[in-house]
């Protein structure tokens, strides 16, 4: 009997192995040519990765130095070996970055953070290696403009050389290089301290329920109840942005709103000094590299190319949008006067409150009714269908026995990091394969959907470019992995989890990044997908995709009233109506609700657009200094508050005689102390270009597979391998302009 059991088990294992080696899965679905990743890591196994990375890094660097003399260095013998090594090593490291965002296990998140730091140290040592740089530098000056090299290869060479330059090796050896490297270390410490100060900030205020009058019950119910000296009060924690926004938009007590505004602007009190020092150090670094200032240094490698081009764009937006905003501001002042009897001043703490009052009274968007048409899971499915049609893709969910078949371990639970994570094999549809003369139904990559809220998972909606695609050393293709993360809260009632329309727009954006990641097709992983492009291109495709959230036909296709999900859903909805014979509402979002969405769309976009101009302008004022000596005289707080008043025309406590140092909101402007310093304008630039692309190719038919295929081929597939401005021009058939952006804002629309 024991022998029979062993024999049966062996036969079962053999059968499973045969299935895992066949061309199809148990369901009959085609087997992808690349197995998915395994996610059975432990804190210990992650740490073991480091030794292997160190060994392989040391080996490839030493091989290049030993086998290539500087005078003989070329792209083929110096850059290609390192890049092939880099591509292969991404396969060891892709899980690490993922766990920091989504792992439920604190020990795994901590280990991933630790390993990320160690890997950073290893690669930093490579880019400080003077012997390797001597060979890369020789190659750069010999071949960066050599048209015998492909444009992709020249872009790769420029990227590789740029990382050495970023460590200071392009600066003259000696005192200048030493200063560059010391200043870089100081800057990194300042940036870390800036971020940590915001994490450590413990600002809280306590209010009675009366002081929070008008705040919605669903917000009040989440606030901590006080004890002792705060008995009878509710705690507002300034780490929870959603609570601050909810109170500032609905609380009728002006004193409370003012207190929130001032306290919010006085968090992390040491950060303004850090910002000042950082601006000075960046200016010094740029001048050591021979650039006019830090902004010029950063923008030179972006689409904009020069600060002058950025100023031209921002000035044009400000000039055209300000008159419309001032009309809106006058209207808000009138609302305040009707509400309080006095509108001599319109303050920061009035803005959200009266904009919300205006929107609710004048546009009457029934957000709760609209949500009923966007049940979370069916909306995600509809969004995938939309992208599949546009970009000639086919999404095949891997589930059930197929997971076991496809898993390299034979265990389906190993191919996702959480049981409820969905995995899709993504294929080209046959028409795209025909157009591109590629194999019929060619494999594209894997898409993961991590949809549900859980402890330890980073909040909000976002995408992760988990693993790039590239051509391996043997000429085969490695396919990319993309992850969409949302934080759906599972419903505890018969009503399913629902998205509001803003969630739909955000997921369109993040799935846009995923499509860019999946469809990019390059030779070298470093040039793959959105992360290989400069910031003023990076956000453009996904910002373009947000436009689909305002197209009537698209909203109808994406929507489905939750009562139509199943017979049980219908019965649950009728039970809520207290009428078992109640007639269901329309299955798709009806025209009257779409009319509400479209009417309210640009209610206060003029304010939002000028706010982005303000942030971009502030960034440039810190990073486009006429002389290095000007850094010593920077006053980040005064610049911030004066510039806000100048551009937005909304007053702060300075109007009450408290001067321009009443608060330092710049302490929370983390974008320019992490990755967007000198380039915050990129959000605006990419949105304007995204509007041009949408209006030119998709406005007339948002479902056009012809336009989608062209967009995929010309904009998404090249990643960072091509001439980005030429790619845009080729798609449009002309140079990009601002016309669609202004048309979309409806600046000539009556109030």
From TrEMBL:
<feature type="signal peptide">
    <location>
        <begin position="1"/>
        <end position="16"/>
    </location>
</feature>
<keyword id="KW-0378">Hydrolase</keyword>
<dbReference type="GO" id="GO:0005758">
    <property type="term" value="C:mitochondrial intermembrane space"/>
</dbReference>
<keyword id="KW-0175">Coiled coil</keyword>
<dbReference type="InterPro" id="IPR024080">
    <property type="entry name" value="Neurolysin/TOP_N"/>
</dbReference>
<keyword id="KW-0482">Metalloprotease</keyword>
<dbReference type="Pfam" id="PF01432">
    <property type="entry name" value="Peptidase_M3"/>
</dbReference>
<keyword id="KW-0645">Protease</keyword>
<dbReference type="GO" id="GO:0006518">
    <property type="term" value="P:peptide metabolic process"/>
</dbReference>
<dbReference type="GO" id="GO:0004222">
    <property type="term" value="F:metalloendopeptidase activity"/>
</dbReference>
<protein>
    <submittedName>
        <fullName>Zinc metallo proteinase</fullName>
    </submittedName>
</protein>
<dbReference type="GO" id="GO:0046872">
    <property type="term" value="F:metal ion binding"/>
</dbReference>
<dbReference type="InterPro" id="IPR045090">
    <property type="entry name" value="Pept_M3A_M3B"/>
</dbReference>
<keyword id="KW-0732">Signal</keyword>
<keyword id="KW-0479">Metal-binding</keyword>
<dbReference type="InterPro" id="IPR024079">
    <property type="entry name" value="MetalloPept_cat_dom_sf"/>
</dbReference>
<keyword id="KW-0862">Zinc</keyword>
<dbReference type="InterPro" id="IPR001567">
    <property type="entry name" value="Pept_M3A_M3B_dom"/>
</dbReference>
<dbReference type="InterPro" id="IPR024077">
    <property type="entry name" value="Neurolysin/TOP_dom2"/>
</dbReference>
<feature type="domain" description="Peptidase M3A/M3B catalytic">
    <location>
        <begin position="249"/>
        <end position="746"/>
    </location>
</feature>
<feature type="coiled-coil region">
    <location>
        <begin position="173"/>
        <end position="200"/>
    </location>
</feature>
<comment type="similarity">
    <text>Belongs to the peptidase M3 family.</text>
</comment>
<dbReference type="GO" id="GO:0006508">
    <property type="term" value="P:proteolysis"/>
</dbReference>
């Amino acid at each position: 009997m024991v022998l029979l059991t062993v024999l049966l088990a062996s036969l079962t294992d053999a059968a499973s192995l045969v299935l895992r080696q066949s061309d199809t899965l148990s369901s009959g679905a085609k087997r992808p040519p690349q197995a998915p990743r395994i996610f059975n890591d432990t804190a210990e196994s992650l740490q073991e990765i480091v030794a292997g990375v160190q060994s392989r890094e040391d080996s490839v660097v030493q091989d290049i130095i030993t086998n290539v003399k500087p005078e003989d260095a070329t792209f083929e013998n110096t850059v290609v070996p390192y890049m092939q090594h880099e591509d292969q090593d991404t396969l060891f490291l892709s899980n690490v970055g993922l766990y920091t965002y989504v792992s439920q296990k604190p020990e795994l998140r901590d280990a991933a953070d630790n390993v990320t730091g160690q890997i950073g140290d290893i690669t930093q040592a490579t880019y400080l290696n003077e012997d390797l740089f001597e060979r890369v530098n020789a190659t750069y000056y010999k071949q960066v403009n050599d048209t015998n090299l492909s444009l992709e290869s020249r872009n790769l060479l420029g990227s590789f050389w740029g990382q050495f330059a970023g460590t200071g090796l392009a600066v003259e050896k000696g005192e200048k290089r030493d200063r560059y490297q010391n200043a870089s270390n100081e800057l990194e410490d300042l940036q870390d301290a800036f971020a940590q100060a915001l994490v450590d900030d413990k600002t809280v205020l306590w209010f009675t329920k009366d002081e929070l009058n008008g705040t919605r019950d669903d917000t009040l119910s989440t606030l901590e109840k006080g004890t002792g000296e705060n008995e009878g009060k509710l705690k507002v924690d300034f780490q929870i942005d959603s609570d601050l926004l909810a109170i500032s938009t609905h609380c009728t007590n002006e004193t409370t709103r003012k207190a929130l505004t001032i306290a919010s602007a006085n968090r992390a009190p040491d950060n303004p000094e850090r910002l000042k020092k950082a601006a000075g150090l960046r200016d010094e670094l740029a001048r050591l590299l021979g650039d006019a200032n830090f902004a010029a240094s950063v923008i030179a490698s972006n689409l904009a190319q020069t600060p002058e081009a950025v100023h031209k764009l921002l000035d044009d937006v400000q000039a055209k949008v300000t008159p419309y905003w001032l009309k809106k501001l006058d209207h808000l002042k009138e609302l305040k006067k009707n509400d309080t009897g006095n509108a001599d001043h319109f303050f920061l703490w009035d803005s959200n409150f009266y904009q919300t009052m205006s929107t609710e009274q004048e546009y009457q968007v029934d957000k709760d009714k609209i949500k009923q048409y966007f049940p979370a899971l069916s909306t995600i499915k509809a969004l995938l269908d939309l992208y599949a049609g546009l970009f000639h893709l086919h999404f095949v969910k891997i589930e059930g026995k197929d997971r076991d078949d496809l898993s390299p371990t034979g265990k389906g639970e190993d191919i996702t990091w959480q049981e409820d994570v969905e995995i899709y094999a993504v294929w080209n549809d046959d028409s795209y394969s025909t157009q591109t003369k590629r194999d019929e139904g060619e494999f594209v990559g894997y898409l993961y959907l991590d949809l549900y809220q859980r402890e330890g998972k980073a909040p909000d909606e976002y995408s992760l470019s988990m693993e790039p695609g590239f051509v391996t050393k043997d000429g085969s293709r490695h396919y990319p992995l993309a992850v969409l993360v949302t934080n759906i809260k599972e419903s505890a009632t018969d009503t399913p989890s629902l998205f509001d329309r803003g969630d739909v727009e955000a997921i369109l954006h993040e799935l846009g990044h995923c499509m860019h990641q999946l469809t990019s097709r390059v030779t070298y992983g470093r040039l793959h997908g959105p992360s290989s492009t400069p910031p003023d291109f990076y956000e453009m495709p996904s910002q373009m995709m947000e436009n689909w959230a305002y197209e009537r036909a698209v909203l109808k296709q994406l929507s489905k009233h939750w009562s139509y999900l199943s017979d049980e859903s219908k019965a649950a909805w009728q039970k809520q109506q207290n009428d078992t014979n109640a007639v269901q509402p329309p299955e798709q979002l009806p025209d009257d609700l779409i009319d509400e969405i479209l009417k309210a769309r640009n209610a206060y976009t003029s304010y939002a657009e000028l706010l982005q101009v303000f942030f971009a302008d502030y960034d440039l004022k810190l990073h486009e200094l006429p002389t290095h000596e000007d850094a010593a005289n920077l006053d980040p707080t005064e610049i911030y508050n004066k510039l806000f008043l100048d551009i937005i025309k909304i007053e702060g406590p300075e109007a009450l005689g408290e001067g321009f140092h009443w608060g330092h909101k710049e302490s929370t402007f983390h974008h320019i102390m992490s990755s967007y310093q000198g380039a915050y304008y990129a959000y605006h630039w990419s949105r304007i270009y995204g509007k041009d692309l949408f209006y030119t190719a998709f406005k007339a038919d948002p479902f056009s597979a012809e336009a989608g295929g062209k967009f995929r081929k010309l904009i998404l597939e090249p990643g960072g391998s091509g001439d980005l401005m030429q790619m845009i021009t080729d798609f449009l058939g002309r140079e990009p302009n601002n016309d669609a952006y202004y048309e979309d804002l409806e600046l000539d629309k009556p109030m």
